[in-house]
């Protein structure tokens, strides 16, 4: 609609430019033709045309415009150049009107695509009697070039105007129309970050967008309720299992002094207790900001790892496994990071699924502190590396071995709780490296 209105307004403006240029050129040359008609009055009566011919030649040299004078019978009596053909259609029409005592009509508009000369004729009159006519053959190239430049400027102004209208009117309208979709996109990103209570407004929207918003809110509510039920189930199961497991352990611990079989049962009870503890921690780590306390001092990750390794060195030594303590670079991390649980999972996995020697190190990498545990076992394939940390996932090579598939999921949740991440990669020389990368606290003073 805007384009149509702009074109409707531009057409008469373009016609005005072309017609105005034609009229200006015609009027300026009409004055010259009147002067020649006056100068030709006496020569046409006396027959002395030498001076008139000289005036025509000088005029063409000065203005680059051919001129000629004819008598009442359309015979050329003086010209600035030879070869004038009075039978040319434009000249013939102009002479027929002029010699009849009438002024020719104004020429048509000078459009850039038109060619040819403009014929300007004026009658030579004495006492009301037409003696002949003075005719100018006016070139129009320069005038048409000027019209073309003016039309290009008009077109440029038209395009700028349309662009301004689009920016000033259409763009805000488009943004207003698409705002509900932008709100929906922002809400989707919030949910992917864990804010399951995010909702979109459906007030004042089009019916289709209102239905879309209602459907999105229903989906978000169902997802929120499902996650809440999952947390409640895990928390309730952990709580309900903890008491009978403790009671069973007390009874079996008494029997273990009498029966070797009871000692195996005690080991299984302890394993079940660790599973319950991990489930409880995994449910709590889903809550954003759980256990966070911004008032505590940063934790030196290297120091915490070294303290935990004291006990693990004895465990590894009892199983004839080599545990190497590598580089330990001090670095402050969030105090709520459960270093003991993370290291227990990584070292237990390395002992069960990898091969010695197992190396533990703490380093810095830019703005991150990196806890790395490396073993020299078979490692994992590229597909399995992408699944490390998924709940209840276990590699096909390790499914026959004892485990729940929750260990690395807990590690990943613990790292994410303080803004960190878990990276699994194959090191040079084979094996597997699990890196827990957490943000470095800049103001930590080692």
TrEMBL record:
- In this chain the Histidine kinase domain maps to 236-442
Q: Name one Pfam family in it.
A: HisKA
* Reaction equation(s) it catalyzes: ATP + protein L-histidine = ADP + protein N-phospho-L-histidine
The cofactor named in the record is: Mg(2+); Mn(2+)
Q: Which residues form the HAMP domain?
A: 175-228
Membrane-spanning intervals of the chain: 151-170
Where found in the cell?
A: Cell membrane
* Keyword Cell cycle annotated: no
Against SUPFAM superfamilies, the record matches this protein to: ATPase domain of HSP90 chaperone/DNA topoisomerase II/histidine kinase, HAMP domain-like, Homodimeric domain of signal transducing histidine kinase
Question: Which keywords, in A-to-Z order, does the entry hold?
Answer: ATP-binding, Cell membrane, Hydrolase, Kinase, Magnesium, Manganese, Membrane, Nucleotide-binding, Phosphoprotein, Protein phosphatase, Stress response, Transferase, Transmembrane, Transmembrane helix, Two-component regulatory system, Virulence
Q: Does the keyword Ion transport belong to this entry?
A: no
By its UniProt entry, which InterPro entries does this protein fall under?
2C_sensor_his_kinase, HAMP_dom, HATPase_C_sf, HATPase_dom, His_kinase_dom, HisK_dim/P_dom, HisK_dim/P_sf, Sig_transdc_His_kin-like_C
Question: Which GO cellular component terms, listed alphabetically, does the Swiss-Prot or TrEMBL entry include?
Answer: plasma membrane
| Gene Ontology MF annotations | ATP binding; phosphoprotein phosphatase activity; phosphorelay sensor kinase activity
EC annotation? Answer: 2.7.13.3
Q: How does it sit in the membrane?
A: Multi-pass membrane protein
Signal peptide segment: none
Name the record gives this protein: Signal transduction histidine-protein kinase/phosphatase MprB
